[in-house]
Amino acid sequence: MEPLLQITGVSHRFTVRGEGLFARPATLQALDGIDLTLWRGKALGLVGESGCGKSTLARIAAGFIAPAAGSVTLDGAAVEVRSRGDWRRKVQMVFQDPLAALDPRMEAGRQIDEALEQAGILKAAERAGRRHELMSRVGLGAHLADRFPHQLSGGQRQRVVIARALAAGPELLICDEPLAALDVSVQAQMLELFAELRQSLGLTYLFISHQLATVRHLCNDVAVIYAGRIVEQGPAESVFAAPRHPYTRMLLSTVLDPRRQRPRERGLVRGEPPSPLALPSGCAFHPRCPSATDRCRSERPSLHVKGREKVACHFADQMATV
Amino acid sequence: MSVLASAAPSLKGAATGAAEPLFSINGLEVAFESAAGSLRVLGGVDLSLGRGEALGIVGESGSGKTLTFMAALGLLGRNARVSGEVHFAGRKLTGLSESELLAIRGRKIGMIFQDPQSALNPVRTIGAHLTEVLRLHAGLARSAAHDRAVELLSMVGIPAARERLGSYPHELSGGMCQRAMIAIALAPEPELLIADEPTTALDATVQLQVLELLSDIRERTGMAMVMISHDLGVVAELCSRVSIMYAGRVVENGRVPEIFEKPCHPYTEALLSCLPSLDGDAVPVTGIAGDVPVAGAYPPGCVFAPRCARASAICGWSRPILQPVAGHAAYVACHNPIGGLH
User: Fold this and answer.
1) How many domains, in total, are found in chain A?
2) What's the predicted TM-score (pTM) here?
């Protein structure tokens, strides 16, 4: 396995307005010491509650923002900003709301054409052929090329967005909640499409979702983020089958399966994520953790390798046996 | 099934065979009038729930879940043509005047919605919202209303309730705002709470806490509840019965564990097959081909037929009605239900 994208020691802060009219600006710690490797052809899922920093991490990986500290390398070459054409060609992004991502006044086909032109396909005839191929690849009928975004269904719009992202022939697709705005039946269709595209094009995915079952279905690996740090990381199969971090366990206990194929752990969920403006001392999860001790309140656990996984918890060994 | 066969049509779906339903909807149809003509969006919905019962309404967007209850409570605009009957606590709601409805909505029937931030007035405090409801609907004096407001906020799990009365909606997190909304809806001690996607905008961890709160309150007060949701898991967690809606109709209804374990309608089964499992590929995700039809372009015959793997010739022209399923406490509107005919 060779790494496609490597994120090393990435931290990021935002400066925000303080409380009150004359307050000094406050610093928001969005990400803190993130190390992640995206292996070529594999899918990595990012999970965590809103505000944990997963979208910031996706934007840094996509090269939209330069991290305050740390480095991001693509194919071994460090790239500071997105302006490098190579990066733009190799990394593409799909967002949650396709209606916001598309130009409302341009036909779907023309939007794909534009992306093809950007990718250097300048001959109109060649472009039309590529567009046709892309549309059928994502499951869009050729007759939809003349439609405006508002004339398409939610699922069709997201397919246009994906076709446009594929126009550049990317190697890495970064997806930020791409299914969240869609109906259940359409989500299932898109899930199939993502899996199929990965197979046929050998794509690498960084896939953000709040739906753990979706991540389990699509991704090889998963990273659980809490308050800007990775608290658990490893193969999706083993992390979800035997979580070692109490936060992962808490997240898993929120999955409501109508078929009840596995019993749900009750009573694990409490509290809300901390404000990134005032993170708790020690382990950021301690105020919500059922088994927090004095050590957790004062000493921040670092990410340790435990078998095939990495866990940031002082009591990870005990967790596995619970 | 003899109980059901002899029961009045208003009991259709009340597989419990309870005496009189608290809330029932019979043959509710809604069409919107516009310059372009009449657009029928709801095609004869039947629902009922007994006292203390929790009923889930499941369907994809545009299936008419919210519209059904907006129409039933007289909340639609003037261009809506509503027919059918709605009964609540032995009273017929359809045909009541606006002032008579006002005495029921918010007082006897509480409502909570998806986005609490937009349901609350941004320039009024949580306390002002609560005391208004308590004085208006519960008839409390100012100081009594204040004390009760503190009580209600702590009941819904808002810490430092007394201080929170002075908070504005934007100062609370989404989860805390939804808790405040629930406190406001519960203030007049309604007999029925209609919750329309109350946890959709929330994180899964917060969603679970709100669901646990609702289920606690129901246990303590015996309040009946309608949970409108696109999320089958939410309904399975909270409700004892469920109605599945598709394109403005109820296609299946019955008891919760049975419906999700052994669905009879192909749409219900297909909907379940759309959900990936935490156990990975053990359960394949198959999805449903095609899109949800839009109002005005509903197919003749069974509305689900164009996407249905079990569709036969009859489905193309004959619209199935809800009928009891042999050996099941369920009703299904299908010519070829899974597991055989009625």
Assistant:
1) 1
2) 0.89
